[in-house]
Specification:
Blueprint (H helix, E strand, L loop, with lengths): L2 H6 L1 E8 L4 H12 L4 E7 L4 E6 L6 H12 L5 E3 L12 H21 L5 E2 L2 E2 L1 H13 L4 H16 L4 H29 L3 H23 L14 H9 L8 H8 L6 H13 L2 H24 L10 H26 L10
Antiparallel strand pairs: 1-3, 1-4, 2-3, 5-6
Helix pairs in contact: 4-13, 5-12, 5-13, 6-12, 7-10, 7-11, 7-12, 8-11, 8-13, 11-12
């Protein structure tokens, strides 16, 4: 940047609306940093704000906010100079609670019939991983992955290549989740986790899932500060892979999604570490990736986004209640396994 450009560049702080997790932070920073008149962008989940440095000429802060909102609007974010009052939309629970309870009844019925065993013995089964993958693919935690898919699709579509990049992306993602999940599982054997260590790790997984569920409800903002995330420099490098326009870029982007800051992905990665098995760890992450596949495949060929749907609040609250249910079932079963409490459920 020249001396003249430094003199023209100014720093602005705006409020950003629609952020839910660290993936949102990475998404907003990456999108804004790519604008030609922006030299620096720093978002804060805690303050729900973004600091932007750049040359916007004689535009007013209101005009700049409108300009910065354009690339973020498709992802469900808006920028303004004033803080907006958070609307928890408690009315959504009128529909979300009955639907979530219906899911719970169905879940228990399937357990009783022995058709599926989603939760048992404090462990996460492949069925659990698959269902969590479905929920994750529709949650704001996957905003970065969805953004990568959309940007990559648009880039290659301009060159007339629509199908091959998508197949490479999804194929690379599924294969890498199995292989890298297996590696994490195999690493678990090196630690030779004893009963106490397994209990602690399982407890952490349950608590992480509980926090994710609470965050999906979009009611308690304090819970967002508790959500764990991958080191930002790793996530940024993973996101940066999509900027290379190369034949193998879709494959590399698919692999890179394993390292992006999605709390659901990280909770599954934590669990695979406790398996102490390459095959079990690999199949768990594969099941999770397959759960995310339908929605991400739709995003590949359309602009589908549940986040911008008028009923999104109901969906997220329903999904949050379901995730909380999974977390509580697992936490209770973990305590039963170690003998802290007696079995509460006969299935």
């Amino acid at each position: 940047m020249t001396t003249q450009e430094i003199k023209q560049a100014h720093k602005y702080t705006f409020h950003i609306h629609g952020m839910h997790c660290n993936a949102c932070v990475l998404m907003t920073e990456s999108e804004l940093a790519e604008l030609p008149n922006v030299t620096y962008a720093k978002a804060s989940l805690k303050k729900h704000s973004v600091e932007v440095t750049g040359d916007f000429g004689d535009k007013t802060p209101e005009q700049i906010a409108e300009e910065l909102t354009i690339p973020l609007k498709p992802h469900g974010y808006t920028i303004s100079i004033e803080r907006q009052q958070h609307n928890a939309k408690w009315g959504d629970f009128k529909i979300a609670v009955p639907v979530a309870l219906g899911f719970a009844v169905l879940f228990i019925a399937l357990q009783k019939m022995g058709i599926v065993n989603l939760v048992g013995g404090g462990s996460v089964t492949y069925g659990t991983a698959f269902v969590i993958g479905i929920i994750a693919s529709l949650s704001t935690c996957m905003a970065v992955v969805g953004g990568l898919v959309l940007s990559m699709s648009a880039t290659f579509a301009k060159e007339g290549d629509k199908i091959r990049p998508q197949l490479m992306f999804h194929g690379g993602r599924i294969v890498s989740f199995f292989f890298l999940g297996g590696v994490i599982g195999a690493l678990g054997t090196a630690f030779t986790l004893n009963t106490s260590a397994t209990f602690i790790l399982s407890l952490i997984i349950g608590i992480v899932m509980l926090i994710l569920g609470i965050n999906l409800l979009d009611v308690f903002h304090w819970a967002k500060k508790l959500q764990p995330s991958m080191p930002k420099f790793i996530a940024k490098h993973a996101h940066g892979v999509s900027r290379f326009n190369h034949t193998f870029t879709p494959l590399l982007v698919g692999v890179a999604t394993f390292f992006l800051p999605c709390g659901f992905t990280q909770s599954m990665q934590l669990y695979t570490l406790s398996t102490g098995s390459f095959l079990t760890g690999g199949l768990t992450m594969l099941s999770f990736a397959l759960g995310t596949l339908p929605v991400l495949a739709l995003i590949s060929f359309s602009s589908l986004s549940i986040k911008n749907n008028s009923k999104s609040g109901i969906f997220f609250k329903t999904a949050g209640l379901v995730v909380i249910m999974f977390a509580l079932f697992n936490l209770i079963n973990i305590l039963v396994v170690v003998g802290v409490i007696s079995p509460l459920f006969n299935f």
